[in-house]
Specification:
Interacts with SKP1 and CUL1. The chain has about 500 residues and is α/β, with parallel strands linked by helices. It has 19 helices and 18 strands. The strands form two sheets. Strands 1-2-3-6-7-8-9-10-11-12-13-14-15-16-17-18 form a 16-stranded mixed beta sheet, with helices on one face. A two-stranded antiparallel sheet has the order 4-5.
Length: about 500
Amino acid sequence: MSNQSTGDTKPPCLPRNGLVKIPNQPNGLGSASITKGTPAVKNRLCQPSSVPAIISPALSNHSDLPIPSLASPLSLATLAGVPSPSGTSMVGLNLSEASPTNEHPSPERHPDSPTERQLAVDEKILNRLFWYFSACEKCVLAQVCKVWRRVLYQSKFWVGLTPVLHTKELYNTLPSGEKEFVNLQGFAVRGFDSFCLVGVSDLDICEFIDNYPLSKKGVKSMSLKRSTITDAGLEVMLEQMQGVVRLELSGCNDFTEAGLWSSLNARITSLSISDCINVADDAIAAISQLLPNLTELNLQAYHVTDTALAYFTAKQGYTTHTLRLSSCWEITNHGVVNMVHSLPNLSVLSLSGCSKVTDDGVELVAENLRKLRSLDLSWCPRITDMALEYIACDLHKLEELVLDRCVRITDTGLSYLSTMSSLRSLYLRWCCQVQDFGLKHLLGMRSLRLLSLAGCPLLTTTGLSGLVQLQDLEELELTNCPGATPELFKYFSQHLPHCMVIE
């Protein structure tokens, strides 16, 4: 998937996801952030947001108080399959009670009709109702009463979410001044199988393993960021946590390539390494020899050279379908040659920030990796229109193409892309030579669902208005685009009603 940062600065090497606060335990002791999606998947950069005030703080610890009304599209009565009492439309909201001066009091309730409070604690109804809320809202709703917490603490409501624990959140300070590791039972009840630990040491990781009931077999994904884990800590973690198949190491500068040799094992299928200063060619040798079942590799390393890309074995050539190389500055077209021969079955490839790769390297990719569905060439300043001709001629299955900051791309290159009938997502952020004439080539691409033109300085309001011909477009990004005026956005709202236009 493509990087979807809209700013002028270079996008991060590995994904940063939106975070919300999530209580650790029913009594509210301890908290953590929670991120949606797996670490290896890129998502739009979001800023941490505060928990919405759905429920008054006074209600969080008093289950005997009336259930508050919720901004839900369905009433509990509707979910229960019974007619709602007259004068009620939302959970726990009785207009006749809320407004004593109501001129139209509701008729008497049928003797067999359930009361609103009975509906509000009916677990069958709640199991359906809670699907309508976000993870952030579920965290708050779980504090309303024991019934709601019991329903919400089912693992099905937390699938795909990763708690993010910072060092300071792992310990409680006792009255004596000593520190005690927090109780992680609240996470275990919800069955979290993925964690991100930030700023931790070897000791912190050992404490986590000892205190989280599911750590030995139940945790499938571990992410360590800005941590001081050493070779010994990495070895202990992967030896003890036998269920881990997805591993991310970001900003960890205390482990070495020797630690990878001693700790990596064959069960790992997805590996992400970024901003780790000791990673170079020998690390790729360890990965290639110790991870025969690797399906996805995300790598940001300044010191990896062309030689490293020849290390992959025939086994990985068959199993590895995703390779993201980000800001690997030493990689040249020779490295691309090694890569396409070692990993011929790639369906996702990113060479973002590999600034030495030229059109010849793209030609090698197009000729040899015919299964590609996603290609990221962002921040490759040597790429020209010729590379786009190679892509259009050979990559017939390509669905996503990222050309952010490819400053030599012109309208001619877009004319080549216009022949690609399978392309669904096209990113042209800060392509400073693209003009209105180039946009005309895109108007016949009925397969396009996402188009990003953020930061393109030469596009005018007139040229952009022609995009209304793309009636199947679902997302249009015009951030920092001078030609995007308030009048244009109003025009799009009228003629592209089903498209999300990002201003």
